[in-house]
Sequence to fold (441 residues):
Amino acid sequence: MRHAQVALAGSGSGDKAQRFRAAALPYLDDVYALARYLLRNTADAEDAAQECYLRAFRHFETFRGGPIKPWLLAILRNVCRAEYARRVTQPAMQADGLQAAEQCVDGLWTEGGSSPEADALGRLDGETVQRLIAELPDQFREAIVLREVNELSYREIADVAGVPVGTVMSRLARARALLRAAWIAEENKS
Amino acid sequence: MTCEEAIVLVHALIDGELDASHAREVEAHAGSCARCAAELAAARDLQRALRGNELRYTAPASLRASIDRAVPKPADAPSRRSLLQGFALGSAMTAAAAAGVTFVIVGGDRDDRILGEAVSAHLRSLQADHLTDVQSSNQHTVKPWFNGRIDLAPPVIDLTGQGFTLIGGRLDYIDGKPVAAIVYRRRVHVINLFVMQGMGGSLGAPKLETIQGFNILRWSEQGFNLMAVSDLNREELEEFGTKFESAAKAS
Fold:
């Protein structure tokens, strides 16, 4: 399999390169952003994005048309998993963040809280929000980034993450609950 | 709609993933349930707060340049040798990882996906007021209905006498292919029995799995793959499978 693909790549003409560049390069920011959130640092994210594009080019024949962004992000995710598996599975939450998350079991609302309107989240600066997202546990972070940053549909997220659409939905629900709890904890800090 | 369903579906609602009739159902539920209304408001509020921020990262120019160098340019169609060198340099990839990429893209977790899609199809059938295309408790009405609509003749078996009421049939889609959905009811529980062409390889003995609180019983017979999806408890769903199978053998 691997040899066949290398041979294919080797016989690729300028046409393939041209098609690949036109299709894939516009999504570099998306690829890089997902890598930043998954790996949580600049240098690793740059390496992963680069590796993603090399692999994508090499496997471009297997791309079956349709939107290319989810296809690229699936490769990126695989790069991150394979190359940085150990790091990526490290527990990410700070102790206090985790505690806040655990208090929020069933949903976004809080038991006996005031009306939802009164609970509207205040403003945090962009970097703080990025950090709060980066501190979410892996599978929830991945789901919410693919949705809110990469703007994929549920079906596309399901394909990228290799889980059923129903799982995407429940992960998003959980991710939002955790993020909202972390957001409130952050507001109360300042 | 139960709160359990609604509390997850409010997210699909705010993400624009529901069609109009599902959306109305979730909104109607939230209109009469304070807890789900709060969940919906909180989810919308978080989405609003998130979208007020720049969450994206921009790839550094150096990375852009480096990828630009690494991917061959149309003008200089590379020799095979230089291309291989480029790959060797750029890649810390193992053969296993390479196989993984192909698998993820081409194969996916097909099995998981099919189970997920079966649950989605089941949910859709309950929510969209589209449980049946042909409504009949008569197997001799339901079975011929599939003629010409799908290229298989699904086993349609009336189990009313055994506690599972046949209520009709429907055409649905799983894994991008048309499948026959045969609908039964046990008390208030709906069972969708999806029948699809077997893809070679039998599933063997019936397997019971639980996804999102739904039980799924899968087995194969007569060259079909069958999936019964329901919120019915495991024991009774297995009973359904057993009764269906023995009736199918007898027919």
Remarks:
- Confidence is low (pLDDT under 50) at residues 77-108 of chain B.
